[in-house]
Amino acid sequence: MSPDALLHFAGGVGLFLLGMRLMSDGLKVAAGPALRGLLSAATASRARGVASGVLITALVQSSSAVIFATIGFVNAGLMNLAQAVGVVFGANVGTTLTSWIVALVGFNVDLQVLAMPAVALGMGLWILGGGRRAALGQALVGFGIFFLGLDALKGSFAGIGTEVGLDALPTRGLWGILLFAAVGGVLTVLMQSSSATLAVTLTAAAGGLVPLTAAAAMVVGAKVGTTSTALFAVIGATPDARRAAAAHVAFSLLTAAAALPMLPLLLEASRWTAAHLGLETQPATVLAIFHTLSALLGLALIWPFTDRLVAWLGGRFARGEADEGQPRHLDRHVLGTPRLALDALDMELRRLAVIAHRMARSALSNEADDARLAAEQAVLDRLAEAVIGYAGSVPGGGDAVVDAALPNAVRVAQYYRGMAERAEELGRTRLAADLPPDQQALVDRLHRDGQAVLDASQPRSGTLDLAALDAASAGFEAAYQEIKATLLRAGGRGELGPATLVRILDRASFLRRILDQARKAAHCLATLERAADDGGVPAPGTA
């Protein structure tokens, strides 16, 4: 291949990758709520999970994007691992659509006719639009560049099949199949895109550069190579992210292990299918069918063992889950789909709530362990910092719901930090065990009313009852003012020593501030959840 042809090939690959990135990123933002809804529907059954994975991957043209979004749903508690595995399997089948686009459009249509209008219209929407309209424009630009890259690849391979001496390479037999499978895998690792490898393979086969059997082996190798994306992605990721990625690796390896020995049979079946569908039996079409058949073969083989795979994965990658200060739901790969990131933030904020409320109840018992409260506050601070940092990394992308919800997430984290700080102060402010009965009765009443507020503000499954919370808060405030006045009168008459009076009032003040932070956190958290559920713009958080 001449230097000019090599540069033409490299430029075509670059355009293809750029188009895929723009198209995938734009569609993820444009279809944000719809993507969330489709993935939520996958929780009904594993079969529906597979169907959702196929459909969404066909929509956004990126199996990696769908797999990482699925990981985000697992991390956010909206989908369990068994349901997520179905979506991962479906994404592996859905990614074969790229082969069909290349085969049916790339070699039968003037790609310039498709590409230029798409780029022109897309740039218009991207520049003049905002929010999802701009994202749709970005996707259209990516669509056009995708076809420009494919056209460049087609041109770079045209007529060079006889110039490159492939006769010297073993294109048949075990070693030939393994060699070209390795080439497909290496190309995918280098370009971090199995779609790009498929485009190169199909155009090379159509140009006569690569024999059909060798090209089919490269397609299988690309399936194995795509696992590198998942393996790179789970470095430092959550345990659930690693489990979902491991399911993707298992599917890809099983598919390759089954498809390579059956390569001649699958190719013959692909030719037969093309003929009976009325399609031309040109190499690109046969390879597209082969790609789909091999993915379906892998799905058929792994499906009966899915329960065992899920059970096995559930016992792996558990290291770090015991550290309560380590985030369990915040996954960096979900940042590209902001609505999913809001779900992850909600689940992590609920973990903050558990720690903050536990500290408050422990401090309220008047028997708190100071060292344990200090350790729990350090844990909560680490988790809160991670939540605030993650919220600052979520791109709004012009989505009004996301832009308005993120400050609420930060407020909730800060309110729970405030609860923890006051709880530690409350724990250090112990009362004497021999208070006079009338004073002890006042303290007990204050504690009971405080417990009622804590109960009403504790986030649990379901929606918080804010009306009940506000009623409990009003009841505590009335009791606080009455008890404070009673204690001050007792102190003024000399019925209560100054040291005891100050300690009781300090304790009541710390408790009051704890409950105020808990009420504000609950209101903001409820607002955040409503925004994620109904798509409405959340109101400003309680100040």
Structural overview:
This protein has 22 helices and no strands. By secondary structure, the protein is an all-alpha fold. The chain folds into two domains: 3-314, no CATH class; 332-534, Phosphate transport system protein phou homolog 2, domain 2 (Methane Monooxygenase Hydroxylase, Chain G, domain 1), CATH 1.20.58.220. The protein is elongated and about 105 Å long. It is a multi-pass membrane protein.
Secondary structure layout plus pairing:
Blueprint (H helix, E strand, L loop, with lengths): L2 H28 L1 H10 L4 H15 L2 H13 L5 H14 L2 H8 L6 H18 L3 H26 L15 H19 L2 H13 L5 H14 L1 H7 L5 H21 L3 H14 L6 H20 L3 H9 L23 H27 L5 H24 L6 H29 L8 H21 L8 H27 L5 H37 L9
Helix pairs in contact: 1-8, 1-10, 2-3, 3-4, 3-5, 4-5, 4-13, 4-17, 5-13, 5-15, 6-10, 6-15, 7-8, 8-10, 9-10, 9-11, 10-11, 10-15, 11-13, 11-15, 12-13, 13-15, 13-16, 14-15, 17-18, 17-19, 17-22, 18-19, 19-22, 20-21, 20-22, 21-22
Tell me briefly what this model is.
By secondary structure, this protein is mostly helical. The protein has 22 helices and no strands.
Sequence of secondary-structure elements: HHHHHHHHHHHHHHHHHHHHHH
* Amino- and carboxy-terminal Cα gap: 67 Å
In percent, how much strand structure appears in the residues? under 5%
Helix content: over 70%
- Rounded mean pLDDT is 80
* Shape annotation: elongated
Number of strands: 0
Radius of gyration: 30 Å
Which blocks of ≥5 consecutive residues have pLDDT under 50?
159-168, 534-543
Number of helices: 22
Total number of distinct structural domains? 2
* Alpha-beta content class: mainly alpha
- Largest beta-sheet details: none
